[in-house]
Structure formats: C-alpha cells, structure tokens
C-alpha cells in the first residue's frame, strides 16, 4: 500500500469553493460533481501513467505553459480567462484522440451529460499536475513517471470495475499494445484499435443447427443407409437364390409320393 495516494491528493484539492464553482458551471448537484471527480481523476492520472518519458515531458511543459502558477489555492474551474483553448488541447493530448468516447463512457456510467464530464475532465488536469509537480515546484518527468508507476495499482483500483483497464492514446503510441491487459468491453469503446489474441474457445467453430447443416447431415446419413440397403439386397439374392433352388428340388421329389386328390 502506497503511503500517499495521488488520487486522494488530487481530489483533496477540490475544496468547497471549487466544488461550488463546478456546480454552478455544470448545473449539477454537489453529489454528482463528487461522483464525477471520483471517476475522472483516476482516469486522467492513468492516462498520464501510460505515457512514455518523451510524451510525458511534452505534456509537463505544455501544462507548465497552460497553468502559470499552480498552488493549493488555485481555482481549478475550467473556461476561466484566456486558457480555454489551451486546456482543451492539453486534455486531448492527455486522453488521446478517443476523448469523446471516454466522455460518453463516463457519462453513461454516471448518468450525467457528456458536457459535464468534459468540464470535470478539464478541471482534473490542473489538480493532477499540481500533485505531480508539487504545485509547480518540480517538473522533472523522470520523478513524475516514478510517482505514477508507484501509484498505478492505487489508480486502477479507484476506477470502477465496469470500465475495465482503461487504455488511452494507443493511436499515438502503438507499442503500448504489447503491454496492456486483454481487451474488455470498455476498451472496445475507448480504443477500438486495442486487440488481444483470441482464446481457444473463441477459435472453435460453434455447432449451430442451420437448414444447410441439417440437410448436409441428412444427406450423409442417407448415403450410409443406401449402402446398407444394397448390401442387404445382395446378401438376400445370394442366399435366397440357393435356398429357393433347394426348396424347389425337395418339392419336386415329394410330389411323386403324394396321393392324388380325387
């Protein structure tokens, strides 16, 4: 068990004023906002954890330019000031080009609008980068990567089981296919390019009774019955002919001794 959970640290940043701001923006209840953050924060952190050092460095520099001064007192509500487009681009770079599918999956699970999920994902970014960079004091990608690696079990455990292991951004990093867990239903939604080897049960052809298969089966059975019938007829002709001849001879001999009927 890790000593400090990145997920818990990022969620702890959302104090009452920030949560109130998010409820005003989304028109959702505080309970819905809290449930949404509980999902999108680990999703965001897992997406970052799946990046290699090169991509992670680029994202850290992008976040550093997007969020001028990260601090525990920062307002993480999105769409504030002139950072709207920068936040949108950063979110797409973090989640990958399946962002809309991720939004819809979370929306369906939480029964909240996809637009609300987008707001929460956007708000989760500065919170995640704050805890990863010690509130903007250390942007070293190796240290950040080590933190994410150490927290991976905790991050995954906080993602609802219905989502399965989320696979993000594999369009931009095809090599990650070799290291991800087997595909699940959620993977197919989030990343349709993610595949895994078929099991032996999947490779086995199912036995389905169709008109064609039944006709074929009956045709095969009919051939065997015809062969058996031919064999029986042959045996009958061979043995029956001999028995008939013997019976005819015996009858001929017997009639000579029989008295004539007047």
TrEMBL record:
Parts of the chain that traverse the membrane: 221-239
Polar residues composition bias: residue spans: 193-202
Ranges annotated as biased composition (Basic and acidic residues): 204-213
Disordered as annotated region, ranges: 191-213
Gene source species: Sphingobacterium griseoflavum
Record key words, sorted: Membrane, Transmembrane, Transmembrane helix
Protein name: DUF937 domain-containing protein
């Amino acid at each position: 068990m890790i000593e400090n959970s990145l997920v818990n640290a990022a969620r702890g940043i959302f104090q009452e004023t920030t949560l109130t701001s998010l409820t005003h923006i989304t028109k959702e209840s505080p309970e819905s906002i809290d449930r949404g953050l509980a999902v999108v924060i680990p999703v965001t952190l897992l997406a970052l954890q799946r990046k290699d050092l090169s991509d992670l460095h680029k994202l850290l520099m992008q976040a550093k330019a997007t969020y001028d001064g990260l601090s525990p007192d920062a307002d993480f509500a999105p769409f504030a000031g002139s950072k709207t487009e920068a936040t949108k681009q950063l979110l797409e770079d973090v989640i990958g080009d399946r962002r809309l599918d991720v939004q819809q999956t979370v929306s369906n699970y939480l029964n909240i609008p996809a637009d609300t999920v987008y707001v929460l994902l956007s708000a989760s970014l500065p919170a995640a980068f704050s805890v990863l960079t010690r509130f903007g004091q250390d942007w070293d990608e190796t240290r950040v990567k080590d933190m994410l690696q150490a927290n991976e079990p905790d991050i995954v455990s906080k993602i609802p089981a219905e989502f399965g292991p989320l696979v993000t951004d594999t369009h931009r990093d095809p090599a990650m296919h070799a290291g991800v867990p087997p595909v699940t239903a959620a993977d197919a939604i989030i990343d349709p390019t993610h595949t895994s080897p078929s099991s032996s049960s999947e490779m086995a052809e199912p036995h389905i009774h169709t008109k064609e298969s039944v006709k074929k089966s009956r045709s095969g059975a009919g051939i065997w019955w015809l062969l058996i019938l031919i064999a029986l007829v042959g045996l009958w002709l061979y043995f029956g002919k001999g028995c008939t001849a013997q019976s005819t001879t015996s009858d001929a001999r017997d009639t000579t001794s029989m008295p004539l009927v007047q």
